[in-house]
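Appendix B. Extra example for self-study. Work through it before the problem class; the solution is given directly after the inputs so you can check yourself.
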Amino acid sequence: MTRILLLGGTTEANLLAQAIAKSGLSGVYSYAGRTEAPMGQPIHMRVGGFGGVEGLRAYLQAEAITHVIDATHPFAAQMSSNAVAACTAEGVPLIALERAPWTPGEGDRWTHVADIDAAVAALDGPTQRVFLAIGRQHIDAFAAQPQHRYLLRLVDQPTALPFPADVVVARGPFDVAGDTALMQGHGTQVVVAKNAGGKGAVAKIAAARALGLPVVMIDRPVLPPRRVVHSVPAVMSWLNG
Ligand code: 3Y8
Ligand code: NAP
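Solution. Structure tokens for the complete assembly:
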């Protein structure tokens, strides 16, 4: 009896949940519980951490999980490495559904940086209007560059912020027209983004290109080796293999 654990939180994970529901296979969609009201899913949902590798191992045993699919965001590196460790230890098959990173094209003005701290360092210099489109978890680091006027886009209304900023509360996926208008309205001069890949967050990259704006592009963290595919059908054939 197939019992799937789908580590979600992305557009691709949502598409996969639809395919699993349609297939009639038994699956659980897992959220970390980062947002106040995560999207509903067509399969059973669980919300919250497992309690590290050991907690995930206990969950795999208790729920008799036969397949784990890691469809988390490329920056959810802790979850992805915990999944590799727990599935290896428990002998449970694991597959990752990854989306390709964005690559710069004609007209793109990207500065590649390795991580959040390097993105902060890249903002050295005189006051600018910065669209900080990396969510809430790493905003604090940018207090080191207080000279800028920041525009933040967050999933939920923040209770407190480490520095004064303009805040837009919005949950993607986003579109180019909306992001272009947002950036023009704010007078954005530089965009800071994670190389998330996929379609849900790419609008601001296309808007920056259209507006001729530079982008500080944060490269993805390195993940441990695991089986990786790049499409929902590829995951479904692995499940039915
Ligand atoms: C809780 C689930 C869908 C899936 C929507 C994708 C697309 C829109 C783009 C910008 C960038 C950012 C952020 C972003 C995107 C999709 C996808 C994606 C970026 C939800 C969701 C959860 C989260 C967590 C949240 C993080 C934050 C990151 C906002 C749901 C909506 C910036 C990443 O407030 C917080 O603590 C938010 C935390 C992790 C990054 C951060 O460090 O703050 N995502 N995002 C998941 C969970 O609990 O397990 O609430 O319904 C999912 C989506 N976010 O089609 O509905 O697939 O990537 N999410 C980044 O890419 O830089 C927004 O504003 O342009
Ligand atoms: P992370 O830093 O890799 O994980 C930190 C801890 O959060 C994990 O060790 C685990 O806690 C818990 N966790 C993470 N994802 C989980 C999931 N899907 N189900 C259950 N527990 C989970 O993760 P993150 O970057 O904060 O991302 C959290 C969620 O937001 C993920 O679902 C991810 O797909 C989604 N998301 C993240 C980003 C981003 O920019 N990071 C963007 C879009 C969506 P325990 O150790 O207690 O098990």
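Self-check: The first strand starts at residue 3 and ends at 7. If your reasoning did not lead you there, revisit section 3.
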